[in-house]
Amino acid sequence: MSLTAIDSLHQLASAHGVATDFWDFHGQHREVSTETLVAVLQALGVDASSDDAVAAALAETEDAPWRLTLPHCMVVREGHEHDVTVHVPDGTGVSVHVLLEDGSRWDLGQKDHWVPPREVDGTLIGRATFVLPSNVPLGWHRIVATPEVGEEASCPLAVTPERLSPPHLHSERGWGAMAQLYSIRSRRSWGLGDARDLAELGSFFGSVGADFLLINPLHAAEIEPPITPSPYLPTSRRFVSPLYIRPEDIEEVAYLSGPKRALVQWAAEEVAAANASGEPLDRDASWRAKSGALAVIYEAGLSDARRRDFERFCAEMGKGLQDFALWCALTEKYSEGEWPEGLEHPDSARSALHRIELEERLDYFCYLQWIVDEQLTRAQRDARGAGMGLGLMQDLAVGVHPGGADAWALQDVFAPRMSVGAPPDMYNQQGQNWSQPPFRPDALARAGYAPLRDMIRTVLRHAGAIRVDHIMGLFRLWWIPEGAGPDEGTYVRFDHEAMMGVLLLEAQRAGATLIGEDLGTVEPWVRDYLAERGVFGTSVLWFEMDEGGYPKTPDAYRELSLATVNTHDMPPAAGYLAGEHVDVRERLGLLVEPADQVRAEALAERERMVARLTEFGLLEDGAPEREIIEAMHRYIALTPARLLGVSLTDMVGERRTQNQPGTDQEYPNWKVPLADGVGEAVMVEDLKTNGRLLSLVEVVNAALAGGPQGRHDD
Length: 714
Known about the structure:
Mean pLDDT: 95
Number of strands: 25
Shape: globular
Distance between the termini: 69 Å
Number of helices: 20
Low-confidence stretches: 707-714
Strand order of the largest sheet: 22-19-16-13-12-25-24-23
Helix content: 25-40%
Strand content: 15-25%
Structural class: alpha/beta
């Protein structure tokens, strides 16, 4: 392309929020290729395949706002006046009012602000500006414009909090446990940790002083094996995996006949031996056993009162639940092959016929969501009842499986032939492709941000806080065109004010706290923005380094943050101190530098960590691994961070990582059961007597309280 054509392409890309250049992790300036820009714009519905197409698209971009009577959606902050722009044929009178969600009506006044009219498609269009007053209450409302001639128009209006309320903690600061729920079994589990185990964990950690329990995403997985192990690649982020149901806790089990109760018991016994095994977790085997038991329980029916409760749940979840259930039923029906033509969209005529044909199966899959919702609600109640200030802290994945329920039911708001990932950085030197389709920013706005709102609202049904994985995804995402490498993508910007506003509104209404995972390549102003809105950031000890490579001093940490020693994408502290993160990457061929060099750098990093801990009087020379780990937690307790997270794997001495980024089948990602330092499985029942765990808990409690820090013997 000529320089002039490239300049026009860059102008078009910028108008649609597509970055034409960026600064990489190493501080180097990078230009985005023309091929990538054309592909990304195409996914946004913009033709940039030729010079003429670019020129036409630029003209259309300038005309687009003038074609709308009202914006697609308005998301504003409370306590401020806001302009509402209205477009009608020039000279046409128009009135505007707001319908509040409580049914009341507020008429808006027009502002004396003249803007020259614009000719669009041969018609002269005028712009009128109305004023939305500062005292419109929080909530989801509608703006309605009524012109003197023509049709009435309306759009959603979300009035959001200026700043989220502070979290409910025992005191000014609080700590919590971090756990991968599926990996933590009890003796009565079905091979995987479930909602009953979650309730036990919440009760236990609440009793020893924790304010929260951060768990992996519980989003829905496939309904038929093979089930994707990663909780960060779900079929749906709005709905929950029935894998987490404990069948025996369903009320109707108590009323089953003897033979039917025996069927449930036999199904549990099929997978009971796996509970104490240190071998990789088998989700498929657990689900086959559990789904058979759930079918028996469902077929027994519900009492009239329970049926009414179920129906109220279905009505509250609305069409989203029905579409999800239809996807499950279709996936089950056509498990042996491709779906027939005509089922490409949930609103197609053939889909409507299948809703009738598969009505009973839709009811069953809705029932599973009701049951898991009940059991998670109970787990949150038990956690709060045990003394936790926040209770469950749910984790929200950054995206969904490209062939899953959300990608099908919400396909109109996803970008085609694109996947989300991350550019190369120091821990993933080849970049990452997460194989997840991104939301289209323009389509989200046209949908009034309903997909985002409904997802957050559902997760908050049983949580006192949400950790938003890769919160930068609400500001910008790394889009990778189909067939390109992870390093051949570019950033696409979202309307972060609208995206964050929706999250804050739903969190405020639920009395919940938001924690943003803002690790990696993050523009500095984003962290300032999050703090301004009352959203916590994330600080990881191993990542918080000064220019000399030493851990930052505690006073350099942010107050509004969740401070932890590590993450689920790293080995536990014991493994990291032993350099196992280097060994694993070498074995899997993920290093781009000589292994000896990387190993030497890791050893130097460990020595600098120990030196810093010693400098602050937290460690003596020659201290063993366990004391180093406890000192690391004392160190983050010295920071001003309001929230401290302590990994359950660090509490019990586990050395293996749950997930090795950059791998798929090469490593048993998300299949590692909780074990101690010698590989023996650790059960939920064992936690209350685990000396290493109790010692670390006492260390953290004492550090936050400023008192003496004791220890327990194993």
